[in-house]
Amino acid sequence: MLTPLPAEDWDDQVREALASTVPPERRRPDKAGNALSTLVRHPALAGAFLPFNTYLQKGSTLPERIRELVILRTAFHHGCVYEWGHHSAMALQVGLTEADVEAAQSGVTADESDQAVLDAVDELHAGSRISAPTWERLGQRLDDRQRMDLMFTFGGYSTLAFALNTFDVPLEDGAGTDEFYASMGS
Fold first, then answer.
1. Which of 37, 124, 137, 174 might form a disulfide with 180, Cβ 3.0–4.6 angstroms?
2. What's the CA gap between 63 and 77, in Å, rounded?
3. CA–CA separation, 184 and 167 (whole Å)
4. What does the pLDDT read at residue 70?
5. What would the pLDDT profile of 4-42 be if each residue is shown by its tens digit?
6. How many folded domains does the chain comprise?
7. Average pLDDT in the 47-65 region?
8. Are residues 52 and 68 in the same domain?
9. pTM (predicted TM-score)
């Protein structure tokens, strides 16, 4: 539905929208990737959303491993190929195993703590809340701030999935490989 903003239309507004969260080497149409290049069609919205998304990705109190489990389960629920493609690779880079990635898809794992995380995402998706028993199970591993970050990670990545799916943002060729991320400068 929406294509990435053509290179000739990148202007100072677009670069300013990316400035607070995207490294200088990625503020170019050939390095930003399809998601960012599509989001900057609305520079004011991109400039507001990207700092929040960056917090979820880099500043959150969630351990990386749990963050990626949440994102993967969220991407699965929304059928977001773009999120799944990027984050299944990122999950492996932060220590998840192939079995963990498969568990994020199936929703079932032998690890009780991970199961609480997957159940929390399932409950948020199905009923827009985490039940008291699941909140307590999460509390065996996560403090209140981490549980709050879990909920906002689900919400932020759900919003992003809605956008990526609606705009039909294609997964880049080679996404999910080390070579791809090296070429993107990350």
1. 174
2. 21
3. 22
4. 98
5. 999 999 999 999 999 989 999 999 999 999 999 999 999
6. 2
7. 97
8. no
9. 0.92
57: left (phi over 0), alpha (psi -120 to 50) or beta: alpha
In a domain, 72, yes or no: yes
Of the candidates 73, 138, 137, the one whose C-alpha atom is nearest the C-alpha of residue 101 is: 73
**Rounded to 5 degrees, what are φ and ψ at 156?**
-65, -45
- The Cα 168–Cα 80 span in angstroms is 10
pLDDT at residue 179 in the model:
52
Q: What is the mean pLDDT of residues 109-124?
A: 97
Picking from 41, 58, 75, the residue at the C-terminal end of a domain is 58
For 129, the token pair is 């809340």
Label residues 83-97 b or e (16+ Cβ within 10 Å = b). bbbbbbbbbbeeebe
**Three-class DSSP category at 186:** coil
Q: Is residue 179 part of a domain?
A: no
For residue 184, what pLDDT is reported?
Answer: 41
